[in-house]
């Protein structure tokens, strides 16, 4: 004859075991059935921590029982302490063992079968959760490795990055295109799978360490048809997904990954207002390419205290670490700590040291614009360093630089005269939107709307880094030398 109660109990246990938090639910169910306590003790856990509900005089005997069962010397053990029963049983047969400890008021025999049956479901649920923990650990290790490779590439350490990926059985292409995919955090894992399919699993995908909404793709640069197929695949994915956008850079050498990322990031700013929600970087002449060879001498002198720095103690940052910190700070501001994987207090300490070395306030926008240009010049070319350094203002006075600055700023003012005024005020306020709103007697949303309009006109990111605000700051400095503002 079918025992309806037994069938119902098994169905309840099965359903609980299938729940995401099934282990906790099963233990709670068992504790209610025996009107007592139910806990599991894993091999790496201090059993005494799990026995805090027991009277002090029972802890030592029960601890000994758990040790015997966990060591495989017994499948189960019981302690009868007057009206109280403590039952210890091995859950599963694999190592490391987990042990079930159940305590209740009353005799052992009426409850033993129920506890034994429940332990089978506990074992299944524990294995599922253990496998999930192992999978999560593997995925976290993979994500950490990918971030490390990205960091190496962004700082120009191509050989080291290739060694890491080579050890994982992956080869990075010599020429790549960088894509930045933006989507709500809840869709990022779906984006990972879709992007893997779109790249044929030949791309290197990284969950951006700075922006939680971003996924970075380093895709091998392929013939035009293959590139178009990848673009079409990404565009199809974002088309019907609100809040999802794609920015694409041009083909760059692997050693220029940082430039490719900036291209994709700027394209992403354009994609946010485009009908197709996808955009490719729009090239234009960049300021460092207009600075003549003597500019290298200026850049070298500007950064020489940093370049010549030697750490006083083994734990102090050396010149390479400080240069990477400065580069990350200029690109991502306070988010730099996420990229560098350092505490924000460590970032603050490094910025103080940089300020002392360079004799400048690295929080000042005009100073940051100079330092950014100096780093870009050093990254771009080599030149004489021992000759008298040409002042920056003389470098900016070159006709080709003036033409660049005038064209850039005129394009903004022609679209709307208010935009030029807003941009200058914003830059004079150290890129503080609230201060700009106060100066112009406008609301903060109104200022942000104007700045977003400038992003679309210049086809460059402005409100988020990497940003074009340093170029714009230097563009104003260039034209102001020729025609000082009233």
Q: What attributes characterize this protein structure?
A:
486 residues; alpha+beta; Beta-Lactamase; Alpha-Beta Plaits; six-stranded mixed sheet; four-stranded antiparallel sheet; 21 helices; 10 strands
Quick description:
Helices cover 58% and strands 12% of the residues. It has 486 residues and is an alpha+beta fold.
How would you describe this protein?
By secondary structure, this protein is an alpha+beta fold. It is 58% helix and 12% strand. It contains 21 helices and ten strands. Strands 5, 6, 7, 8, 9 and 10 form a six-stranded mixed beta sheet that branches. A four-stranded antiparallel beta sheet has the order 1-4-3-2, sandwiched between helices. Helix 1 packs antiparallel against helix 2 (22-34), helix 1 (4-18) runs parallel beside helix 5 and helix 5 runs antiparallel to helix 6 (158-167). The radius of gyration is 31 Å and the shape is elongated. 36% of the residues are buried. The model has no long low-confidence stretch (mean pLDDT 83).
């Amino acid at each position: 004859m079918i025992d309806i109660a037994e069938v119902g109990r098994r169905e309840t246990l099965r359903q609980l075991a299938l729940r995401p938090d099934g282990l906790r639910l099963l233990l709670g169910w068992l504790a209610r059935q025996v009107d007592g306590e139910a806990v599991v003790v894993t091999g790496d856990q201090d059993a005494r921590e799990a026995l805090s509900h027991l009277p002090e005089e029972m802890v030592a005997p029960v601890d000994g029982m758990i040790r015997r069962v966990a060591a495989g010397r017994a499948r189960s053990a019981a302690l009868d302490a007057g009206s109280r029963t403590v039952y210890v049983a091995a859950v599963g047969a694999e190592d490391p063992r987990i042990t079930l400890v159940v305590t209740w008021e009353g005799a052992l025999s009426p409850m033993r079968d129920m506890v034994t049956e429940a332990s089978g479901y506990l074992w299944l649920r524990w294995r599922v959760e253990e496998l999930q923990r192992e999978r999560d650990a593997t995925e976290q290790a993979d994500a950490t490795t990918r971030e490390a490779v990205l960091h190496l590439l962004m700082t120009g350490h191509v050989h080291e990055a290739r060694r890491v990926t080579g050890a994982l059985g992956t080869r990075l292409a010599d020429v790549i295109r960088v894509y930045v995919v933006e989507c709500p955090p809840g869709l990022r894992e779906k984006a990972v799978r879709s992007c893997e399919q779109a790249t044929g699993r030949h791309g290197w995908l990284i969950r951006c360490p700075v922006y939680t909404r971003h996924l970075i793709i380093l895709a091998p640069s392929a013939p035009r048809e293959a590139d178009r197929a990848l673009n079409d695949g990404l565009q199809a994915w974002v088309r019907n997904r609100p809040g999802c956008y794609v920015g694409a850079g041009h083909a760059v050498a692997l050693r220029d990954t940082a430039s490719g990322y900036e291209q994709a990031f700027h394209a992403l700013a354009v994609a946010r207002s485009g009908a197709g929600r996808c955009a490719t970087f729009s090239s234009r002449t960049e300021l460092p390419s207009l600075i003549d060879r003597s500019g290298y001498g200026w850049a070298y002198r500007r950064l020489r205290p940093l370049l010549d720095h030697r750490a006083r103690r083994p734990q102090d940052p050396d010149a390479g670490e400080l240069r990477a910190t400065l580069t990350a700070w200029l690109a991502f501001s306070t988010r730099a700590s996420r990229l560098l994987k350092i505490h924000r207090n460590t970032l603050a300490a490094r910025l103080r040291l940089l300020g002392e070395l360079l004799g400048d306030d690295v929080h000042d926008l005009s100073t940051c614009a100079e330092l950014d240009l100096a780093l870009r010049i050093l990254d771009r070319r080599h030149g004489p360093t021992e000759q008298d350094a040409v002042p920056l203002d003389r470098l900016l006075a070159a006709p080709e630089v003036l033409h660049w600055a005038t064209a850039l700023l005129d394009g903004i003012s022609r679209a709307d005269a208010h935009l030029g005024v807003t941009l200058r005020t914003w830059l004079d306020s150290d890129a503080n939107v609230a201060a700009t709103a106060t100066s112009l007697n406008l609301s903060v949303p109104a200022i942000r709307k104007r700045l977003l309009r400038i992003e679309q006109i210049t086809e460059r990111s402005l409100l988020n880094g990497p940003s074009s605000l340093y170029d714009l700051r230097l563009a104003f400095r260039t034209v102001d030398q020729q025609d000082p503002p009233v």
